[in-house]
């Protein structure tokens, strides 16, 4: 009420256009139910407060004229709006929150470059983004259950969280992301999704599922865990990755995967799990891997496993193959705990088993494999079961993405 009065005073005095380079209007909430409500605000260049669009509105809502929204912009549970746009807005400092919109098909913010966070969930008619300048800055990006085939226009250099799930038509996601501090989750999108982060240097946790390629040519450090489940790629290569500082590396149920190559990797802070990637018969892409902070667990159709630099495994070492790996086993046996006749480089229990037809049936073996280890159970337990994100709960995260996101808001 208060600022509406100010606005009319300004408009009446003809101040609005004169001051159009910076005219700040302040209100807790700007409620928009029609284009006319927006027109009433066009003497403002900055809206300080949250902009909330109601559920009984015109089909087109055009914010052109407003430069900055210093607050949230939200449009929820609406089946009337088909076009939401602005040709002048450069910044939304709070959340850009769009959820449960069945008719929104045009989202066009040509000048928008900076957003506090993006939460776009259940936008089932949205098939294209028109973000010509492109969003360069957002702390968190959640895009879930949309009809988008590309995320061009969302290209941040750095973020806390990026969660892209259940976008069934999404086939490409390429970003100049340089680092990410909390979690990257990509899950249950289009069946031929190609992901590329050519400039990514370090990343906290990442969980990647159902993608057909994943390129991280510059990645040096994973601060948390790196998990790949049920992807469609045939090879994974991280040429510059040297370590995961505290988390796991895991590849589970990637049916077509034949080749994992991480030539510079020396340290895995957590556990090392390779399971049920049935096309993979050789594990030979880790020539420098020296230290594993958790357990080493491998299950698969292997004939050859080589970890020539390995000399410190804090947890158990447990390898089971459907094929004959006896020659690999005799090499690894030399690293077994002294109680098992080895040199003690492996601190937990050593197991190496050939010709076991059931090798692929256990895709989360840490709980059994390492708990029989002695003093090393602490760190090996941390390995694959890291703080509750198990391989199984990842699927839930993706499928229940909408619910998870709702809790994050
Ligand atoms: C519109 O929003 C109001 C307040 O949130 C809600 O009570 C009402 O059910 C909504 N109407 C429709 C059609 O969704
Ligand atoms: C989605 O929005 C519609 C109105 O467009 C509403 O009737 C429905 O309850 C909303 N669904 C959810 C899950 O909030
Ligand atoms: C994160 O990445 C951005 C973009 O590459 C870069 O400007 C910034 O310095 C990086 N921050 C850290 C802490 O590495
Ligand atoms: C992750 O590791 C990189 C490289 O060691 C470091 O610069 C960065 O600060 C770490 N980030 C976090 C969130 O710990
Ligand atoms: C990675 O996720 C685990 C489990 O949620 C958490 O404990 C850890 O702090 C995260 N690491 C980073 C660097 O965010
Ligand atoms: C890989 O690391 C080397 C050495 O740090 C660096 O010179 C090279 O540019 C990196 N490659 C990529 C693709 O980032
Ligand atoms: C092994 O992977 C296949 C897909 O390649 C999947 O169908 C099967 O359920 C997985 N097995 C287990 C035990 O997870
Ligand atoms: C595995 O991939 C690496 C890196 O792309 C490549 O150099 C190597 O030749 C591949 N190995 C096999 C057996 O295909
Ligand atoms: C992997 O081994 C299982 C069990 O012996 C077998 O049924 C399956 O056909 C093998 N898969 C491949 C791709 O070799
Ligand atoms: C997608 O990945 C999840 C595991 O994160 C898996 O359960 C699901 O079967 C996969 N879907 C397809 C179509 O591969």
TrEMBL record:
<dbReference type="InterPro" id="IPR051648">
    <property type="entry name" value="CWI-Assembly_Regulator"/>
</dbReference>
<feature type="signal peptide">
    <location>
        <begin position="1"/>
        <end position="18"/>
    </location>
</feature>
<keyword id="KW-0732">Signal</keyword>
<protein>
    <submittedName>
        <fullName>Cell wall protein Ecm33</fullName>
    </submittedName>
</protein>
<feature type="region of interest" description="Disordered">
    <location>
        <begin position="336"/>
        <end position="382"/>
    </location>
</feature>
<keyword id="KW-0325">Glycoprotein</keyword>
<dbReference type="Pfam" id="PF12454">
    <property type="entry name" value="Ecm33"/>
</dbReference>
<feature type="compositionally biased region" description="Low complexity">
    <location>
        <begin position="361"/>
        <end position="382"/>
    </location>
</feature>
């Amino acid at each position: 009420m208060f600022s509406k009065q100010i606005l009319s005073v300004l408009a009446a005095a003809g101040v609005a256009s004169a001051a159009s380079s910076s005219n700040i209007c302040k209100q807790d909430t700007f409620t928009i139910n029609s284009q006319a409500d927006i027109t009433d605000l066009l003497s403002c260049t900055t809206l300080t407060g949250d902009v909330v669009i109601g559920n009984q509105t015109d089909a087109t809502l055009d914010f052109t004229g407003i430069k900055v929204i210093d607050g949230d912009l939200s449009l929820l549970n609406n089946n009337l709006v088909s076009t939401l746009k602005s040709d002048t807005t450069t910044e939304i400092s709070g959340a850009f929150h769009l959820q449960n919109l069945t008719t929104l098909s045009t989202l066009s913010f040509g000048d928008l470059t900076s957003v506090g966070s993006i939460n776009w969930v259940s936008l089932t008619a949205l098939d294209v983004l028109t973000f010509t300048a492109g969003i360069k800055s957002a702390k968190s990006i959640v895009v879930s259950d949309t009809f988008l085939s590309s995320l061009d226009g969302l290209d941040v250099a750095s973020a806390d969280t990026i969660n892209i799930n259940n976008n069934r038509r999404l086939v490409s996601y390429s970003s100049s992301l340089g680092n990410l501090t909390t979690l990257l989750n990509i899950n249950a999108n289009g069946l031929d999704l190609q992901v590329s982060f050519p400039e990514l240097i370090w990343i906290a946790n990442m969980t990647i599922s159902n993608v057909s390629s994943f390129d991280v040519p510059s990645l040096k450090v994973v601060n948390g865990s790196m998990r790949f489940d049920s992807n469609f790629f045939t090879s994974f290569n991280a040429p510059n990755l040297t370590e995961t500082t505290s988390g796991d590396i895991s590849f589970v149920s990637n049916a077509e995967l034949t080749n994992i190559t991480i030539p510079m990797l020396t340290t895995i802070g957590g556990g090392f799990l390779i399971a049920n990637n049935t096309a993979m018969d050789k594990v030979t892409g880790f020539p420098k891997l020296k230290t594993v902070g958790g357990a080493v667990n491998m299950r698969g159709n292997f004939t050859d496993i080589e970890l020539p630099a390995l000399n410190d495994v804090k947890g158990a070492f447990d390898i089971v193959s459907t094929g004959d790996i006896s020659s690999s086993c005799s090499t690894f046996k030399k690293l077994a705990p002294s109680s098992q006749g080895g040199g003690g480089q492996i601190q937990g229990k050593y197991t190496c088993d050939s010709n076991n037809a059931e090798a692929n049936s256990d895709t989360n073996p840490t709980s059994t494999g390492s708990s029989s280890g002695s003093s090393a159970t602490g760190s090996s337990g941390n390995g694959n079961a890291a703080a509750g994100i198990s391989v199984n709960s990842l699927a839930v995260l993706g499928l229940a993405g909408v619910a998870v996101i709702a809790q994050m808001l």
